[in-house]
Amino acid sequence: EIDAAIVAAIVDHLRSLPVPAAPTQGTTQHGEALFAAVGCAACHGNDFDGATALRSDLLLHDLGEGLSSGAGEGSAGPRDWRTAPLAGLGHAVARGGGLLHDGRARTIEAAILWHDGEAAGARRRFSALTSADRRALLAFLASL
Predict the structure, then answer these.
(1) Helix axes 120-127, 26-38, angle to 10 degrees
(2) CA 105, 44, 59, 8 torsion-angle sign
(3) Exposed (0-12), middle (13-18) or buried (19+): which is 24, by Cβ within 10 Å?
(4) What span, in angstroms and rounded, lies between the C-alpha atoms of 27 and 132?
(5) Burial of 50 from C-beta contacts in 10 A (0-12 / 13-18 / 19+)
(6) What are φ and ψ of residue 76, in 5° steps?
(7) What is the pLDDT of residue 35?
(8) I need a surface site. Which of 32, 50, 112, 126 has the fewest CB within 10 A?
(9) What is the pLDDT of residues 68-80, one digit of tens each?
(10) 3-state secondary structure string, the chain?
(11) How confident is the model over 27-52, as pLDDT tens digits?
(12) Cα(137)–Cα(37) distance, rounded to whole angstroms?
């Protein structure tokens, strides 16, 4: 889909960025464990190439009708989206930027609740968390 030279340039740029510090507080460590337990790490894992902390598999996933673009592109259908990297998420939220591919979500929690399709199970497990566990997971995400 993308020329190999462009991919190489993006990878080089991402490798040049500083890796976010690992969470050290108990709450964010617990949140990171919850992030994996509810299934977010299935797509937003941290092992793209072993060198960058993107927290993305960079693959296309069906995120459901609610996030449909109405038209596909190439091999991607209208409900397919490339997993957005979560590196720098806390900074994006602090700047007041919208989340998701079109900026419709104003909070991390809202972005999670928009997930459907292949991510519906993770969204349901997130919704079933206690309020304390939800806060811990959200604090972890805000620390990225």
Answers:
(1) 140
(2) positive
(3) exposed
(4) 10
(5) exposed
(6) -85, 130
(7) 96
(8) 50
(9) 988 888 888 999 9
(10) CCCHHHHHHHHHHHHHCCCCCCCCCHHHHHHHHHHHHHCHHHCCCCCCCCCCCCCCCCCEEECCHHHCCCCCECCECCCEEECCCCCCHHHHHHCCCCECCCCCECCHHHHHHHCCHHHHHHHHHHHCCCHHHHHHHHHHHHCC
(11) 688 999 999 999 999 999 866 555 56
(12) 10
Could you tell me the two tokens for 45? 């894992």
Which tokens belong to 86?
């979560």
Q: Which long-range contacts (CB under 8 A, 24 or more apart) does 97-102 make?
A: 100/67, 101/67, 101/69
Cα–Cα nearest to 98, from 86, 87, 110: 110
pLDDT > 70: percent of the chain: 88
Which residue's structure tokens are 């510090």?
A: 21
pTM: 0.78
